[in-house]
Amino acid sequence: MIDSKLISLHGGHSGQFCCHAQDSLEDLIKAYISKGFKAVGISEHMPPPGDRFLYPDELKQGLSVKDLDNRFSRYFLELERLRQKYKSDIRIFKGFETETVTGSPARVRSLIREFNPDYIVGSIHHLKDRCFDYSRQDYEAIAADFNGLDAMYMAYFDTQYEMILDLHPFVVGHFDLIRIYDPDFEARLDKPEISKRIRRNLSVIKDLGLVLDYNLRPLAKGKKRPYLTPVILARAKNLGIPVVPGDDAHSKEQAGMFVDRAIQSLKDMGFPTNWPRPWCMTPA
């Protein structure tokens, strides 16, 4: 278990290693320390398996996959430097966040062999190799290609299920991210075919001993609810699945933001707050 009252296992995106973030990674670590964190997991985005999966902000900066590969190598070197520099103040767990596009499972395994992370965060940002959470316009266009949001949700949870079985990520990132631009998500998550998939995915998370990300990024954007919704949280609680806060910080100001509130919410719901220690269990 991790001996720290405060924790985030999904976050630490910095402008140094992520185009849509701000500040240096060291500034983020110093912010965690100043806010009383004794442990934190840093999980920068993995480089994509091909140039066609570059994000618009990366294309705008003229970056290639090779550039991102080099930046990712620098990320792990810097993370190890910071781990040693601040080891008397904070325990840093080295990780990265996955993608789920054509070629990514093999890429994830290759990165694990090369960099030996403490853990990975398994996330879904793409459906049919198209990113759905970058903008509302993209989200709605992909939904139209699925002939509606119901089918898009089902595809999301099916993709997530396959990713969980394939990679066994210690942290399953923002489990219900698919609702990001859907004002009617509460009713949709309760629809039988979608609800069935949610229960199936939670069951395999429990069976594999994985952790759910209580992702606080929506709160930093002014939204009312983190990922996970109360219904999903209740199901996780009934199954005994550990739920761990993730600030999904993209700047030093966001480092640790809302974590104390999230932990109190988890306590109020009856979740344990003896945080499990990360490990990397992706099959070879």
TrEMBL record:
Keywords for the protein's UniProt record, in alphabetical order: Amino-acid biosynthesis, Histidine biosynthesis, Hydrolase
An MF annotation (GO) of this entry: histidinol-phosphatase activity
Associated pathway: Amino-acid biosynthesis; L-histidine biosynthesis; L-histidine from 5-phospho-alpha-D-ribose 1-diphosphate: step 8/9
Catalytic activity: L-histidinol phosphate + H2O = L-histidinol + phosphate
Gene Ontology biological-process annotations: L-histidine biosynthetic process
InterPro entries in UniProt: Histidinol_P_phosphatase_HisJ, PHP_dom, Pol/histidinol_Pase-like
GO cellular component, one term: cytoplasm
Domain PHP span(s) in chain numbering: 13-215
Source organism, top-level taxon: Bacteria
Gene3D superfamilies xrefs: Metal-dependent hydrolases
The enzyme's E.C. designation: 3.1.3.15
Family listed: Belongs to the PHP hydrolase family. HisK subfamily.
Protein's name according to its UniProt entry: Histidinol-phosphatase
Species name: Desulfobacter hydrogenophilus
